Give the backbone structure.
Amino acid sequence: MSLRAVPDTADGALRAANAGSRRWWGIALLVAVVGLAGLMLLSLQERDDAVNGTLAEPAHATLRAPASSGARDRDRLALPPDPVSALASGELSFEQLTSRVRVDADVRGSLWARYRAESNPEHRQTLLALLAEAPVEVVAEYVALLIGDSDVERRRDGYRLLSGLPIEQAALREQALRGLRQEVDAAALAELVQGLQPGMLPIEDAQPLADTLQSLAQTGDPAVRAAALPGLSAWADATHLESTYLGALGHADARVRAAAIAGIEVARLSTPNLRLALFQFAANAAETTQDRHAALLALSRFRLSRAEVELYRMLQAEVPVDPPG
């Protein structure tokens, strides 16, 4: 190798070393930039979390007095001495309390104890409305306890709670059947009958309730029959209800007769036997004007013969379909 080749080789090595150094510094600079960007994003996220936490906090601020961090968790569970008065005065809103009822078992336990000890009916209903916002499975437990109470007013409260629950649940249907079959107070039973709604129940699941309701519509206390007849077609096949409504139209109690007309209208039934019975009802001067008017309104849906149309117009002149006032 010649002596001139040595400097050339050294020069090449130096240039390679300088290039490698520049590449190393470029990589280091890129890593630093990425790290700085990550720190900035983390800082922004922490700031947003802090802002969100600050905005969410006032929703519960009125439910507890300012306290040290050690006492704050204990105060979160505390209720005012009289929640009903706190609602009436505006100290608390219904929404604030119900939001706690939904998630806080201690709050629910306190309200339940207050409800059980409350003697004022209006206050009791307010407490019951708060408890109704608890999870369904918890409200179902309240229903079971109330329906089994010896006090008829407590049982009526249980029926009110039950009417607001999804009857699709088997346990709740059992409670409803228990009330329908065992309740001895006619007014309480009528309230339960009116409150029940089938929702999206399959026919097989609804059948026990439908059979019981139809039995009450046929043989129950007049108040119960009057409660069951209008909505019966929501539970039972309307084509099987003709005899039920015909029997009710001839009942001695005017409430039952009026409820039968309402049920025929809701069910959209229009059989020949019902058409005849409604004409006889509308022509009966012993019935109230309001009930005769309802019978004529029901008949207006029927297909009528020429003679029936003439009879309808004659009765309409006597009992206008749209009476003044």
User: Anything to note?
Assistant: The CA atoms of residues 107 and 250 lie 53 Å apart. The first helix runs from residue 5 to 56.
